[in-house]
């Protein structure tokens, strides 16, 4: 298993010199700013002095910090600062005056009530790109409600189309809504910075979990408008194509994607079932969809007779798209993961490197996630605070200085 080294030098840092203030927690906001950090931005993560980002306490943990925190906050520095304290708020405003990007995911209305809304910050710093990550969006009857990834998967309809048809719906095993929202936020920030090059003025970028969740269902919603039918759950299958699902081999499962008539014929030849494409029930995709249960039953019986590895090899030789259903451990150990350099050793822990390469070089995290408050004094000094002023802020409870090594 190959793991990218921690001290590898980076050559692709297009955001080097850009300052980002990260006033977010959980996953969507931190994922956005982690992307910006990997691209070279200097990201300061603002955390509560008492406990920090809530995900530090989430299970499972590694050396005292939750793995979700570690995986979403690589490359950042930690500033432990109390936003409810007047001196803490003043410190953040001073940092925002010299920042390029301000990203916040506070509960609806909280940023404005604390004097951290876009109008206030952009009046002080016209070049600031202000990114707000919300739950249900900035307007509408639900705009003030809080939200999390599973709530949005339920509310936006993702749960209704995920799972087996005869069982209750399920959420996806990955936090697609959170990470998707983080990606859209990062894209919006980059676009606003690009425009600022020409205008000299920042923008207010707004994204939300609900908008991302609905955006993940384009063909479901378009199909609903086209037919009036509400889509349901199909397990691993796809309602418009057959066979396009998992099958159980003798010792595991594999996903098969015979997406057209040519691939279906090749699949049947590999399965030693050459008669199936000649059967009028299975001659075209349209007829295969109409006779789904009959066809799947015939294919399932054949797949069950041999091992997963045997079928993957045979279908690969036949040019039929297929893949084993792997667990996370298999993914971590697979030679394809190693060949792409997708895992990165950050010293204290190993995580997934950013899924992007430039000129053949993997973009990497530049440092591990920070210990709580590890960079408080350093960041405040950069904003013009003297050692005595930092000590006074700490004594007043406005900030917290260092909690363990900076990492």
How do the helices and strands line up, and which of them pair or pack?
Elements: E1 19-23, H1 28-38, E2 42-47, E3 61-62, E4 65-66, H2 67-72, E5 76-81, H3 86-97, E6 101-104, H4 110-113, H5 118-124, E7 129-134, H6 149-155, H7 176-199, E8 204-208, H8 209-215, H9 218-227, E9 244-248, E10 253-257, H10 261-270, H11 285-290, H12 292-303, H13 308-318, E11 322-324, H14 328-333, H15 335-340, E12 343-345, E13 350-352, E14 357-358, E15 361-362, H16 376-382, H17 387-395, E16 399-400
Parallel strand pairs: 1-2, 1-6, 2-5, 6-7, 7-8
Antiparallel strand pairs: 3-4, 5-16, 9-10, 10-11, 12-13, 14-15
Properties at a glance:
elongated, 407 residues, alpha/beta, 17 helices, Rossmann fold
Unreliable stretches? none
The domain count comes to: 2
CATH top level of the largest domain? Answer: Alpha Beta
Percent helix? 25-40%
The largest sheet has its strands arranged as 8-7-6-1-2-5-16
CATH fold-level assignment of the largest domain: Rossmann fold
Assembly status: single chain
- Beta percentage is 5-15%
Span from first to last CA?
24 Å
- The secondary-structure class comes to alpha/beta
Basic shape: elongated
Number of helices: 17
In round numbers, the mean pLDDT is 96
List how many beta strands DSSP finds.
Answer: 16
Radius of gyration, in Å, reads 25 Å
Instruction: Assign the CATH architecture of the largest domain.
Output: 3-Layer(aba) Sandwich
